[in-house]
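Worked example

This section walks through a single chain of length 66. The input is the sequence exactly as stored; nothing has been trimmed or padded.
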Amino acid sequence: DLQFLRGKYDIAVVAEMPSFADAAAVKVLVAASGSLDDMEMLEYIDMHDIAGRASKITGAYRAPGA
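Given that input, the structure is written out below as tokens.
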């Protein structure tokens, strides 16, 4: 999906990739082409998954010095 923006960035591309490494490889190729001056890659995170994992280890966590 290609979106045009106002502000710091002109364009946003939303894409699903098999892995972060695959997305990074695309970024390297685009950067090497010289077609863009700046390119940031943001990774979607599933907060429900993270919260679920955190709740599973809550009892095992000990603060430093505790």
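What to look for: The first strand starts at residue 2 and ends at 4.
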